Amino acid sequence: MKVILIGATGTVGSIVLATLLQNREIEVITVSRTGKTDLHADISDPDAVAKLFGATGSFDALINVAGDCWIGPFDEMTEDSWYTGIRSKLMGQINLVMMGKAYINEGGSFTLTSGFLSDDPVKGTINYSVVNGGIDNFVLAAATELSRGIRINAVSPGLVLPAGHKGMYAATPGQYPVSHDRVAYAYYKSAFGYLTGQVFRVWEPSTQYLRK
To answer: What's the short name of a Pfam family annotated to this entry (predicted)?
Structure first.
């Protein structure tokens, strides 16, 4: 089974990669922009995405954990700021599906990445919040149109801390970090399970503490 993992060198990508490598029946093709991976591609560049699939050929599953967004105060945003996330994390992932469906094998799966900021935003991350919501709704709609038994889901990770990090980030006060195992299992379930059109949310909303 051939699996393409894009964003393999990041915190989440490394977690997913370690889990995939535990299954000897899986051939993992790792992809990043500049890291030590099998192939390189910037998903914000459609030509780079096309070249990526030309290099990989057919595959059984694609997992993407790559994609950038603009970070900063809403009052300082420009139209170009918005397009940072639209071109990279949103259209980059949509293009992976649009181009990748010509290469994916029957019964294969696409797993995209959104994130908790669509439902539990913090200051300075409005670009992430809007783009993540778009990804969640894209997989819901695309699942109704993909043929040949191809599945598509998104994983919405919570706050994922690098190994060894202690405490919480000042930018996300009170946001409880999720375990690496929970994140890994969500991606594995999405890629190799049976559901489609789903958003696997791996986080607990901060508002849970306000409930009686």
So the answer is: adh_short_C2
